[in-house]
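Before anything else, study the sequence and fold tokens given here and see whether the fold suits the sequence. Record follows:
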Amino acid sequence: MANDAVAGDALRVAPAQPGATDDPVRDVLATFTEDLVRGVDDTLTAFLAAEVDSLTQIDAAMGGFAATARDCVLAGGKRVRPTFAYWGWRGVVGADQPLPPVLPALAALELLHTFALVHDDVMDGSGIRRGRPTAHRAAAARHRASGHTGDPERYGEAVAVLVGDLCVVWADRLMAHAAVPPARLLDVRRCYDQMRVETVAGQFLDVLGEHDAANWSVDRALRVARYKTAGYTVQRPLLFGACLAGADPDSPLIAAYTRYGLAVGEAFQLRDDLLGVYGDPVATGKPAGDDLRTGKPTVLLMLARQLATPAQRRALDRAGAVTASPEVAGLAELVRDTGAVSRVEGMISDRVGEALAALDTASIDGTARTALAGLAIAAATRRA
């Protein structure tokens, strides 16, 4: 009953705003953290302007390269990771602490996210991100337009790798601007480093799964979700924010954040699995069905194989080999027919319940508790 009350409060406090979108995450963020998102964007814009100017002094071409990296960072996005870090921090310090001293650390998470996205797009061979050509595709197109020699695709991938690398360095540099005690910043850095290690681990397992699908399983797909998405999207940013606030690492609040973050992060990835097959490209900014085209062993696809009849399983074996839209649409319907979609929806619902229950186990600032409840529900019901 307490969980239902928290959920109800979250939805009442976060009504649809004038001009609300069909994206619940964006709407909840607009309700609770409009000032934060603006602060993160302003911090990034000012920091990146100085960095681009500095690199331009090396060579004019470096200025163009740095501008490409800057544009990847500023090209939209919901600022989800800084938001969870913010509420992790606010849940400890309450409503009275000023935000500017910690803004550089929060904004640095968006630079880490850009690194992960750009490299992920190269590894997945993705062509579209946030409704625009991915960094490696855009660089390849510029190579062709300029009449450069060599393979434009190889050039594009090399440029994108360097863009991601630069964003990692920028994240470190920006984080150092946070106005918190040095000892505390060292604790924050330890949390941040663990988040980066786990992200790489999850990304490797994701790549391995695509090349070793015969030995994959629902459990291993969930492990990918746990490390590739849950850790660096929700759980670690929350703990990062708590570290910024100087929270006791052995406190019930840290335990609650850990439990909540894992549950919401997995729900976020499970929704992503569904959007990867059934999402509206206009909303997601990516083509629908890419996971079926590549045969990516997501929880959804692994469950479909597990639940499928022998005939359905034989048809599912074509995932990764289809390219035409009608074939992809047919496979998507087949996945639905196995009952896998309903099963994943149930898993998402269970994790939201687990997250809301976790919030009841510790003393958390009331506004932060309500915002986190709203974010849990929004992450599970998002359309982009």
Summary: The chain has a mean pLDDT of 89. The chain is about 75% helix and 0% strand. The radius of gyration is 21 Å. The chain has one domain: 2-377.
